[in-house]
Structure formats: C-alpha cells, structure tokens
Amino acid sequence: MVMAIKGDRRVDHKMVRRSQIPFGSQAGFLERFVSDRRGVIAVMFALMLPILVGAVGLGVEVGFWYQHRRDVQTLADAAALAGAYEAQDSAATSSTITTAATADATRNGYSVSTDSISAANPPASGSYTSDSGAVSISVSRTVQLLFAGWFLGSSSVTVSASAVATSVTGGDEACVLALSSSASRAVGMSGGASVSMDGCQVASNSTASDSIYVSNNSSLTVDCVTTAGNIDGTEDITYNVCASGNESASTITDPYASLTVPAEAADCDTNSNTSSSDGQTFSLANNDTNGDGYVVFCGAVSINSGDSVTFDSDTVFVFNGDDLTINGGADVSGSGVTFLFTGSGSNQNGWSSASVNGGGTVDLTAPTSGDWAGILFFQDSDAPSHSSLNMTFNGNSDTDLTGVIYVPNNDLSFTGGNELDDNGCLQLVANEISFSGNADFENECTGTGVQSIYTSYTVSLVE
After folding, report:
1. Do 258 and 134 belong together in one domain?
2. Which of 66, 139, 248, 346 has the greatest number of CB atoms lying within 10 Å of its CB?
3. Distance separating alpha carbons of residues 375 and 56, to the nearest angstrom
C-alpha cells in the first residue's frame, strides 16, 4: 500500500469519500443517483394519488348512497300508508291507489326524472297477499356516479326500497250503512221519526247533497254521522260523540260483498205456498227433503196473526222466488237462524223479499259462527232493483233482532215503532234505508259474528 506522509498525518487513498469522486465520472453519477433518497415521498405520493382520491371519493359516494337509500325508504313508507288509506275506500281501484301513493311520495321528494314507483293491492308476495286492504309499494332511484364510476365501470347505480301497509285497527263503527253511491236521502228520517242509536254511527256512500236526511219534525240521536255527500237537517241530529257530522268522507267498503247464495238454494224442498199453523216449528229434520242442509221454500211463506211459530236453531232457511211475510200479531222466534232471499230471472217476479208487519213479537238471532255468522236476513246481490223487493219492518212490533239485515240492491224501511232490546246488536246494510217511525237500538255486537263497519281506519306499516 502506497502511503504519503504530510507532516504527521497518514492518508489512505482507498478511504476517500464517494463525494470526492469527480462529478464528471459516469460511474460516479450512477452511484450518486442510486444512493440519493431526496424526493422519494413526492414520487410515491404522485403514484398513489389516484388511488387515494378514488378511495376517498368512493367512501363519500357510499355515504351518499346510504342517504339516498334512506330517502327512498321514506318515499316508499309514505306511499304505502297513503295507498292503504285509499284501499279502505269501497270505490278504490288499482289506479286510484297508485295515484294516492304517488301523490304522497311526491310530497316527500319523489321525482319522475330520477325515481319510479309501483303499487300492488294486495301485495304479490309476503304475508299479506290475501289482505285486500294491504298495499305494497316499490320505489327505485337512479343515482349518478362520480369517483366510484372509475371502479365500478358504470355511470350510475339504482337504489331501491319497498314497504307494505294495511289497516290494523278500525275507528268508529257504523250500525247503519246505505250503499247507494248517488241516491237522494240514502238514509232518511221522516214522518215524525225518532231514531236513537247508542254506540254506533250512521253512514252513507251517496254523494248527494241530502245523502243523509232528517226532516224538521223528526230526530236522530247517534254517536256520529259519516257520508260521502252532505247532511240535510243536521240541526235535528244530536251527536253523542262527535261535534258535528263528517261530510265528503271516503266511501265505505261493503263488508258482505263477497258472500254469495249457495247452489243448494236452487234445490226446492217445497214448491207450494205455506201458511203457518199455531205452534208450528220449521226444522231442518222435518223440512229438508233433499238432505242438503238447507230448508228451501220455492213458494210464499205466510205466518199468520195469532200463530206462534219457531224456526229451528242453527238452520239456514231459503226463500227462492217468493216472499216471507210475518203478519201482525204473530209470535215468531228462532236462534242461530239465517234467512236467505234469492231467485232467478231478469225481472222482479222470480225473486224474493221479506216483510214483518205491525203488532207482532219477533225474536230472531243470527248464528255466531260458520259460513253465515252474523247474517240474519240476506237478499241475494244478484236480485234486481225493484220496489216489490224492498224489505220492510212495519209498525209497533216488539222486535228483538240480533244480526245483519242485508239488502244490497233494494231498500230497507222501518216504519211505526220498532223497539229493540237493550244491549242488542242490529246492523242495517242496504241500498237505501228509511225510518218513518220510532226506532231505538244499541250496538253491542261483540261475539255475535257480525262484521264491524268502520267509518275511519288506522293504517300502519307492516313490512
């Protein structure tokens, strides 16, 4: 090793620092470049910046998606509730339900430019497919992408939500419902009528200006009155619960529209007219000659004044083509009985109805279970509309009726003085209903099989 001595210091030429290598040397330049760490962070940051920006953007956009998801769910919930309320209206259609649902969704931010909505009544799937009052709503929204589009390969995503609502509790109940959509005086009190109904409402689906009519020499005492039209004579109505009548309300669904007269009603057990004898009992065992479980009269049945007649319990009596008449002074009873009025043909001559005339004692109770639970008098919905098929309860009879009197296409009238026992259950559903005498009855229908007719509803989200 060559040594050079300068004074008393020794210099080792192999220990000379790289920085002392001449700058112009090629080998020196490469060594300097490789070993120089200045600016490395900047280079790494530049390389990672697109990834960092994309990740931050994706996180922000995912947050926006969740916000859109919450907004869309709010639209679906609001629309389902509005649709369910609309579905309770007897005149509701799929179109009106969708319109009501869309209107409420719009009030909550729905936009046709980005959103779509569909409604189903009843729902096509889930636990409420058999609930005619349930409405399902599906809402979807197209959301445009920004940063996330780089990763997903799309310019937009679809955010969706759904909801189901239905009526879960009823409001006030009606014991009188007129089904006509347009009749004048669909429910009427005249001729000095004094009608008292405790624990129920009077309702009418008619949109007429005098849908419910009380003449100035008549009176009505009732919990409340609800009509799709207007009330004429409200000053003669005493309200037990509400402050005033409810006008221009939604129509009420006919609760018995799905009931139909069975095929057995055409199998006549007797074709001749029947006139009662005192002490007579009409029974299934003695009168069902066909053995089909129905007693079918294809001739008129008259129960005479002074006769005591019993209709056997738990029996359906059918009047096919001719009427049932209970004359004044008769004593008629039956527990768990249903009277069906049917017929055939294009005019009134082949159909049947009933009349109960003054001074008699009538004590009839509908069955509390089975196909005809709660049904006392039922006129076939296929019966034509004609005055001869109206059903009447006339004058001063001591009447205890429990159940439904249903006359969908014809009128039901109470004249004279019909006093019903306290704590009874009588529900009147007919095309039109009139009172021209005193009528006093209560609405205690728990356990009777009678369906509730609600004049208002509470709906709730269920899915």
Report:
1. no
2. 139
3. 69
Residues 285 and 403 in one domain: yes
In a domain, residue 192? The reply is no
pLDDT in tens, the chain (463 residues): 444 444 444 444 444 454 454 545 556 666 665 565 666 676 666 666 666 666 666 666 666 777 878 888 999 999 999 999 888 877 788 999 999 999 999 999 898 888 999 999 999 999 999 888 899 999 999 887 766 555 666 677 788 999 999 987 667 889 999 999 999 999 999 888 888 888 889 999 999 999 999 998 899 999 999 999 999 988 899 999 988 899 999 888 898 998 999 999 999 999 999 999 999 999 999 999 988 889 999 999 999 999 999 999 999 999 999 999 999 889 999 999 999 999 998 888 899 999 988 777 888 999 999 999 999 999 999 999 999 999 998 866 677 889 999 999 999 998 866 655 556 788 999 999 999 877 777 678 888 889 888 887 788 999 8
Is this prediction's pTM over 0.85?
no
CB neighbours of 245 closer than 8 A, spacing ≥ 6? 212, 224, 225, 226, 227, 231, 234, 237, 239
**Which of 138, 170, 202 lies at the terminal end of a domain, its last residue?**
170
Q: Which of these, 415, 461, 456, lies nearest to 88 by C-alpha position? A: 456
